[in-house]
What does this fold into?
Amino acid sequence: ARAEGALRAVPTDMRASVVGTGQFSVKLSEGCHRVDLMAEVPSATVRRATDIDAEAREAGTGRLLDRDRSDAPDARLDFCLGEPGVVEIPFLGAAGPVKVVLSDAQWSMPAYVPGHFGARARGNLAAALHRRHAPAPRAQPIAEAVGTQGDTLVPVPIEPGRCYFAAAALIRGELRALRISAELGDRAARDDAGDGSEGAGVAFCSDLEESAALRVAARGNSPVWVLAVWPMD
It folds into this structure.
């Protein structure tokens, strides 16, 4: 995480219950977080297998931020917060009452991610940038749009010879699927929000085109999303 630009990685620990379960409740700063949960493995020859599963939920609302149900001895959760808040992280799968360590790697919130759509949208836009390993924008978005359920076409004027990053992020409601695509002439790029994610992003570059067609497809329970487009160096 430090090699990928994380500002810091803060560990904390607790002892799991006799059946290998527990819950962390941690106050986290705004920005992006990579939370790793790792459990001690008992030295006894006969022991329960270690397979940590975990999820992160926003305290108060219960909104799912990320979930790890993989068959692995540790768990990894990636999410971004638009404002400081308390996150609850229940887990299971430790080999009994052993020490479980939570490591929180933190990245700062990019300066030009808009906050006027609310903290949820801000965190989801940052997550789209972070998940695609996009550099932090150095300017305000050149275009913004708001949409709802269904397929929406948003034409955006662009400069020939320049690259851009477009992100779609949920403001409110619930998602089953979110996709963003960028079409320039006969070229297209697209991205789908992953399982549990509320943001998707795509990078594209113009050769001679002076406009791009951005398409956002949202499915779910009354989803409302925001689109932001940044110029990239």
About this structure: The helical segments are 119-131. The mean pLDDT is 94. Residues 30 and 83 are 4 Å apart (CA to CA).
